[in-house]
């Protein structure tokens, strides 16, 4: 690895991590940091996927170890617990940057590699997502590293076959080492996110069909490495779940056999091609398509196609530097959405958690009710105090009881189907009272109702008036978005309970 380039990329990704001030998708917190916080500190909320065994603990354990280290060093402030995971993600993202450069140089030469690196580090999407704590982000990092070593293995083989001298042990050693490392990284990517298996099924099948000794490859490399990684991952899951289960199978059964993911929304078959991939590439799309066409790399084109079909994070980094002036303009145009999305769009749900973290450190007790769409905010990974938090729950009906049993403690989840009409202005006052009672740990005594109610500003006027009548007053707002998206508003509003005597 080019250490000088890596150092520069680390600096860039650390700045990238510090500039992230917004929320993108709930999985950034609810499937990683909230789980890690519970593992490290003993309190936090687990969603229904963890009751169903659909997620592996390998990814959250990475951040749980970080949290434990912070606690041992007495550095586990609310700020560090909320931001340190992205700072940890920064050197990993920098590895992806360097591997993009190295892979492109291996395939197309240094000149093209420099342009590919520019596309990588200035892409609005990688700037916005790669340092976030998604399992997709770690999967992408592991995949690009594995692709480089897979290609380096092929390069060693080509060098040996083209040499006029007998290839010696040194070349054979490096060829085998690259392939073993590629298989290890690929196996880790599958553990982090099982759909990654499809990409490596494509590459592995191609290797088995073209190698001279497919049986030896399977017996001496693929099976041992795959079995060891899966055994370690399954052992970690056994320790955390308290029972043996094979998470990749659970994931496959729910998403493919039972088609359970369709309940959370579905797209048409061409969505990745007509919306997802063009949006990710943005101004670089014409140059990327032209590069794919001119390069005539069928295997890379196949990998890209498979990634789109498998709903994976596309690894479309191998670009040629055609039309330099246009490419410079296209790269510059990536910076504006990157900064806007990272600093401004959907920032209110993060700002309000910083506010609540400060309130949690005051002598007065804190109990918060989030009258917002499910998973709109992070929870304990940003407050870092074991306070009472109430919120809506989007678990499938069959898993509601399991989620309550799994969590218990001082957080309560009110199932969303009971308050589906929450934002309707004509919702009767009795329903508002029922909702707040359900979200209170102590019944109907107003003195024990939540001290703070957090909502979006587009909440129906009926519940806003009702909050005022039962003793809550508007306290402050946090700007959230210039344009409301989905069920969110343009600001996050805080209502505080008047002092009861």
From TrEMBL:
GO molecular function, one term: alpha-1,2-mannosyltransferase activity
GO biological process terms held by the UniProt record: GPI anchor biosynthetic process
Transmembrane annotation, as ranges: 181-203, 273-293, 322-343
Record keywords, A-Z: Endoplasmic reticulum, Glycosyltransferase, Membrane, Signal, Transferase, Transmembrane, Transmembrane helix
Signal peptide annotation: 1-17
GO cellular component: endoplasmic reticulum membrane
RNA-binding among keywords: no
Protein's recorded name: Mannosyltransferase
Organism from which the protein derives: [Myrmecia] bisecta
